[in-house]
Amino acid sequence: MRPMMKPALRRAWRDRHTVQFGVTPAHAVLMGPVDTATGSFLELLDGTRGLALLREEARGMGLPEGHVDGLVRRLAAAGVLDDPGAGGPAADALRARTAEAERLRPDLASLSVLHPEPGAGAARLAARRLARVQVRGAGRVGATVAGVLAASGVGRVDVLDGGCATAGDVAPGGLSEHAVGERRDRAARQLVRRCAPGRPPRPGRPEEPPGQEPPLSLVIVVPRDGLAVYAPEPVTAEPWMASGTPHLYAGVIEATGVVGPLVLPGGTACAGCVARLRADHDPGWPRMMAQWRSGRAAGAAPACDLALATTVAGLAAAHALSFLDGELPASTGARWEAALPLLDWRAERIAPHQECPCGAAGRSGGERRGATGAPHDTMAG
Question: Can you give the residue range of the structural domain that contains 268?
Fold first, then answer.
């Protein structure tokens, strides 16, 4: 082990004997009491020294025997210590690809804050490379989601859509003006390749699992027509429900952005639950839906404010990455909405419907870790 203070957590002295690691209440940790020698010793925890050398340095600074080992244990338990060589074989393989690792350094710093164990951030970043995500839609929202996921280190990002790109599909972070007239799926694949920090993984490498193409980790439904997100069709989701594939809805309808729900088949409310719940509350809903789905004028461009689309794409990609990294984001079993011009994001919990054949009714959802309101003092004494 080569202990290193997590560089993403800024350090400040709260008083003469207390150090705070981190700025925001969600991640800040207090350590105290800290004497002057220990405070100076913290500067040596930069990832360049092993424990043996650190013990020698500590003796030269007059620190007692065993002080280094105890301090390292306390710092690791508090989640402020990392190990630049930890994370397993997949993380080692990622570090060996120098250019790719350099591109992903900011992402690694963020993951190191979110996941406290030394090497946990590197392990999750390496795991992203082995994930396979399907993005269904290559409009202003979908193409941007695909590009963000690829740039964030997701190794396989497949994009499905039909037709040819139009000038209205062009967006910063999404399809470029050079894509106009090309097939959307082909243009989206080129976007993914441009955004990715390195080449996608190939079977047979030491860090790759044996066998054929891995199963889908997540499907993100981002159609150009936001009605299919605001009121998703259960029949479209049947293959994902049957295979147990998690899927996340996101898009823009009129001047409203929507992210969620993230559906965990058999565990959270699905598209069928949404349809049944709406019909229960509004008997006229199915009739109106039939008209909305068939009543749009041919050739009419669906409303999609560019800034709102970019915001939705970023939030959807962040929720997807949180899920791929092993967490259950706030869109799990919930839909987040924000409407122009105020953009006040509001969440609506969606309960599984008792009559839906998905089987989620009566099951409890997964637990989410919430942020605390103040720095947590795990090292006092």
Answer: 130-349
